Amino acid sequence: MSVIKTLYLQTEALFSFVNDPFPKKDEEREAFLAELDQRLDEREKLIAQVDRSSLNEAEQKLGAELIKLNKRLMNRLEQLKQEIRMNLTELQTKKATNRKYENPYEGPGSDGIFFDKRGV
């Protein structure tokens, strides 16, 4: 099997894997991200093996399909990245709120501050 065909099949499998809903539990997320990273590394190695000058016509057509699939894959990966970023922001907000709840007198307080307008 040619490198292009293998790359196309692996990209298709990766695309179907990424289209599954993002796991909610931490352990499942870690496993999902580890497998995603492994699949992307394998795909990267295959991409490095592709020699564009020695492709026949059928492989060039498959390569064009591969480019279209790659664009869809990149869009989905960007969506996953945004979802992970939102989860991290949400987690940081929860941590900050929890710290304020545990120790409300920590840090500078803005209550009871008086600013003199005269500049004395």
From TrEMBL:
Chain intervals for the UniProt region annotation (Disordered):
99-120
Q: Which family does it belong to?
A: Belongs to the bacillales FliT family.
- List each coiled-coil range: 33-97
The UniProt entry, under Pfam families, shows: FliT (PF05400)
Subcellular localization is given as:
Cytoplasm, Cytosol
Give the InterPro entries listed for this entry.
FliT
- Could you tell me what this protein is called? Flagellar protein FliT
What is the protein's known function? May act as an export chaperone for the filament capping protein FliD.
